[in-house]
Amino acid sequence: MSMIDTMSTTHADSASLDLMFPQELISLEVSAQLPSDLQIRPLASTDYKRGYLDVLSVLTVVNDLGEEVWVNQFHAMRATPSAHFSIVVLDKASDKIVGIGTVFIHCKFLLGFGSVGHIEDIAVAKSHQRKKLGFLIVQALTHISESNGCYKTRLGCIDTTMPFYQKCGYAKMANEMIKYSPEHANHASMKV
To answer: Any bridge partners for residue 119, and if so which?
Structure first.
C-alpha cells in the first residue's frame, strides 16, 4: 500500500502530513493575518487530492497526468533541499486548497556566491480572490526567500498584474525573454 493510500486527506493536521519543507519557515506574521477559517502551510504530498491543480488552472491550461505523476514530481522537488518551497492556503472547513505559490532558490557566483529567490505560480481560486490571499502568499514566499539568505527575490508577470505585485513591494526592473522548445511552442500563448 502506498503512502497516498495510507494517509487520510480529510482535515489533516499539518503535523501528520508529508510536507515539502518545515512549517516553521512560513512567516508567523503572515499566518496571523489569515482569516481563522484558512491555514497557510507547505505543500503536502497528498495535496493533489485537495485540488492543487484546480487552483493552478486559474493561471493557464493544466495537464493533469494523474496523482502518481504529481506525487513523483512533489518528491523530485523536495529532493533538492533548500531549493523548492511551494506553499498552499487551505480552507479548513472543506479541506480544499484555495491559494498556491512557489519560490525556488537559485545559487549564484555573483555577490559573494549569493542566492536569488524566484517566485512562480501565484494563484488563488476564483471563490477566494479579492481577499488579499495573493498578497499574503507573495509575502510568505518573500519571507522564505529572505530567510534563506537571498539578496533579492524576483518574479515574472504580465503587464496587467504589475500593479498587484507593486502593492506587494516589487518594482519593475528589466525585461524577460523566453524561448520555448519546439515541442512546447504551443505554450507561448499561455503567458506563463
So the answer is: 103, 155
Count CB atoms within 10 A of the CB of residue 87: 24
Residue type, 149: G
6: which 3 cell numbers? Answer: 495510507
Q: How far apart are CA 64 and CA 73, in angstroms?
A: 12
> What single string gives the DSSP state of each residue in 24-76?
GGS-HHHHHHS-TTEEEEE-BTTTTTTTHHHHHTTTS------HHHHHHHHHH
Strand, coil or helix: 47: coil
Amino acid at 175: N
Task: Specify the amino acid at residue 107.
Answer: C
What are 75's three cell numbers? 518528491
Grid cell of 176 as nine digits: 524577460
Global pTM?
Answer: 0.85
What pLDDT score does 129 carry? 93
Quick: pLDDT tens for 130-165: 999 999 999 999 999 999 999 999 998 888 999 999
Alpha carbon distance 132, 182 (integer Å) = 38
Half-sphere exposure of 61 (CA within 13 A, CB side): 6
Could you please report the per-residue DSSP string of 124-170? Answer: E-GGGTTSSHHHHHHHHHHHHHHHTTEEEEEE---GGGHHHHHHTT-
Sequence length of the chain is 192
